Amino acid sequence: MLTLSLKNKLMLTSVLAMSLSACNDNDDAVAVTPAPAPLVQYSYSVTVTNLTYAQPLSPLAVILQGDDKLWMIGEDASVALEKLAEGGDNSLFITNKTASASGEGVIFPGASNTVVISTTDRNAIYFTAATMLVNTNDAFSGLTGVDISNMAVDGTKSWNLNVYDAGTELNTEANGSIPGPADGGVGYDPLRDDNNFVTLHSGVVSQDDGLSTSVLTQAHRFDNPAIKLTITRTK
């Protein structure tokens, strides 16, 4: 009968240990794919209230995106803002944004309208909203590039907002130049005949103030603030 020497026993033990170690290494090398993180939805309810006496508002445009401001005082208005401010058309203004939504229908004086907007993009933390005062040439109200990243669910922010002049159309208040019910004229005109930069609006003049060619009356004047805007995080 063959008997293993002590030396051979030690060698056999070493080989077995190496084999077991190799098996364990292969087991450890199996890759485990982690489950993807679930998408989180961020939802907001945005309400605009018309504080004017006789200035209907165009449907509210609401946007969530990166840190871009969509207008700045002293800078020229984009074509998208020009179309909103001259004709109340927000379709281009809300195009190609991370998340966007529009209200439906005109918001009459004293009335409110709510727009709901949602996104799963956690970087869409800047909020913009805008609406036109339709009995004007190119007046609009709203805010842009507001950081809402710290809003908790059920948290609310509110603003009383002034009126801007888009600077794209002279404030002639002339017949045929205003799209609202005071005139029923044209809206957007690609020709820019004003100073071509955004400013705070100085208000309408009206026929009651001596501008005989104006289609507006003293009822169409507006004081600041013209709108109240409230955003609530719902999810």
Question: SSE layout and pairings?
Answer:
Layout (H helix, E strand, L loop, with lengths): L5 H23 L13 E9 L10 E5 L13 H9 L11 E4 L9 E8 L6 E7 L6 E9 L8 E6 L1 E3 L33 E2 L26 E7 L2
Antiparallel strand pairs: 1-4, 1-10, 2-3, 2-5, 5-6, 6-8, 7-10, 8-9
Could you describe the 3D structure shown?
The protein is of the alpha+beta class and 235 residues long. The protein has a single domain (42-233), classed as Immunoglobulin-like, CATH 2.60.40. It contains two helices and ten strands; from the N terminus they run αββαββββββββ. The chain has helices spanning 6-28, 79-87; strands spanning 42-50, 61-65, 99-102, 112-119, 126-132, 139-147, 156-161, 163-165, 199-200, 227-233. The strands form two sheets. A six-stranded antiparallel beta sheet has the order 3-2-5-6-8-9, covered by helices on one side. It has a four-stranded antiparallel beta sheet with strand order 4-1-10-7, with no helix packed on it. The chain starts with 5 loop residues before the first helix and ends with a strand. The model has no long low-confidence stretch (mean pLDDT 91).
